[in-house]
């Protein structure tokens, strides 16, 4: 973050908190006038600090009541085709996040589904049928203690 000045850090904090704010509202909160604030936001977008602006939707309100973490282990053949496996995972809308791991498992997936029955269908019909999958350990989240998209910017 050495390329960011204090105003830009404040702007990023404001956008993380509420990206629907107008440039004038953000400018007022960070202590700038609208034009310099807009120029900074534009630069942050062009330089890739801001990847996109989205609405964070309550998954339960849209009927996605099951939240599952799946650890996937690939066999030796599967590890040789990490790109193929990664592409397949990216195509599943149920998978919100996917990470390559170091350790005994190769991937950690965060998955949502309507309910456990829907996850079971996804598990058996799609996830477990991917080439190279050796083992999948699924953990169902019972409750959500903290969920944020805000990065700790200082």
Distance between the termini: 9 Å
Q: Average pLDDT across residues?
A: 95
Helix percent band? 25-40%
The largest beta-sheet arranges its strands as: 2-3-1-4
Give the SSE string.
Answer: HHHEHHEEHE
Which residues sit in consecutive blocks of at least 5 with pLDDT less than 50? none
Strand portion: 15-25%
Query: How would you describe the shape?
Result: elongated
Largest sheet properties: 4 strands, antiparallel
The chain-level structural class is alpha+beta
How many strands?
Answer: 4
Helix count?
Answer: 6
Rg from C-alpha positions?
Answer: 20 Å
Write the layout of secondary structure elements.
Layout: H1 6-17, H2 23-30, H3 34-46, E1 66-74, H4 76-80, H5 82-90, E2 95-100, E3 107-113, H6 116-125, E4 133-140
Antiparallel strand pairs: 1-3, 1-4, 2-3
Helix pairs in contact: 1-2, 1-3, 2-3
Question: Could you provide a short overview of the structure?
Answer:
The protein has 154 residues and is of the alpha+beta class. It is built from six helices and four strands.
Report on the architecture of this protein:
Helices cover 37% and strands 19% of the residues. Helix 1 crosses helix 2, helix 1 packs across helix 3 and helix 2 packs across helix 3. 16% of the residues are buried. It contains six helices and four strands. The mean pLDDT is 95. It is of the alpha+beta class. It has a four-stranded antiparallel β-sheet.
């Amino acid at each position: 973050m050495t390329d960011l000045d204090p105003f830009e850090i404040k702007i990023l904090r404001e956008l993380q908190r509420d990206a629907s704010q107008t440039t004038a509202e953000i400018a007022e909160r960070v202590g700038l006038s609208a034009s310099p604030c807009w120029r900074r936001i534009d630069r942050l977008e062009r330089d890739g600090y801001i990847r996109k602006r989205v609405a964070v939707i309550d998954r339960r309100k849209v009927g996605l009541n099951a939240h599952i973490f799946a650890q996937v282990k690939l066999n030796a053949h599967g590890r040789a085709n990490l790109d193929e496996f990664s592409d397949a995972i990216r195509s599943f809308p149920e998978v919100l996040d996917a990470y390559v791991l170091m350790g005994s498992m190769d991937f950690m997936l965060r998955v949502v589904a309507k309910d456990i029955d829907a996850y079971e269908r996804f598990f058996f019909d799609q996830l477990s049928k991917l080439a190279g999958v050796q083992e999948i350990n699924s953990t169902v989240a019972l409750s959500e203690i903290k969920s944020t998209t805000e990065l700790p910017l200082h």
